[in-house]
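On clarity, I found the account of how folds are encoded harder to follow than it need be. Since the whole study asks how a given chain folds, the encoding of that fold should be made plain. For illustration, here is how one protein appears when written out as sequence plus structure tokens:
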Amino acid sequence: MSRVDGLEAEKRNLNARIVELEKSVDQVRADKDREIADLRANLATTSTQTDRGADEVLALLWDRLARTKPALVEGHVKPNRQAAERLFDAFIELAYFANSFENQMRPFLDRYTKQNELVARPWKVYRSYEDVLETIAKTIAVTGGKPVGVLKMRLRELNKWTIGALMGGDAAVESVGAELKGQLQGPGGMGGNMNLTVRDYLRNDGDEMFRDHMLVVRSNKLSEVFKLTM
């Protein structure tokens, strides 16, 4: 009987211990639920503050677009995420367009400038630059980004070279008549031999010489336009 009494006492002690453990587990659960609720509240607050900060930054950047001349956006309209995404998509398209355009112009300007040292030298300097896309990437880099003035200078120079090539080529075409007359009347033509015929002129590679002459003329015309735009 004493052994049974002892077992009963031990059972009561174990039951009391189980009750204490259950209370402890309930407390742990309650503490955990409270911490989770606090974390969720903090995340919601942080998210709200982040969204509010992002909205403020976007509004400031949008205002800069509205203050351009002419304005690129309506300043009184509040921007949203979709507008911001389209803004970045447009920027990407323009960046790749400018880079592709420059790469397409380089072979032409290699040929247009090589007959005149006044434009050949500055073109070689420009040719040594990194491409436009790399300049853009360095401009928008988070760490050590370049001033936007560097990109602005590159694009202005690209525009100057392009306009020079177009106007120089156009001026060269318009001067073909006068240049051909000068060639025919010059030392390689009738100026060297009054009895020279067109057949003789062609037989003496006159057409090749005239082509080379027009390449020089084109390069000179580009040089004149280039100097006007400096």
Q: What stands out?
A: The chain is about 80% helix and 0% strand. The longest helix spans residues 2-66. Helices lie at 2-66, 81-113, 117-127, 132-139, 148-174, 176-185, 198-203, 206-228.
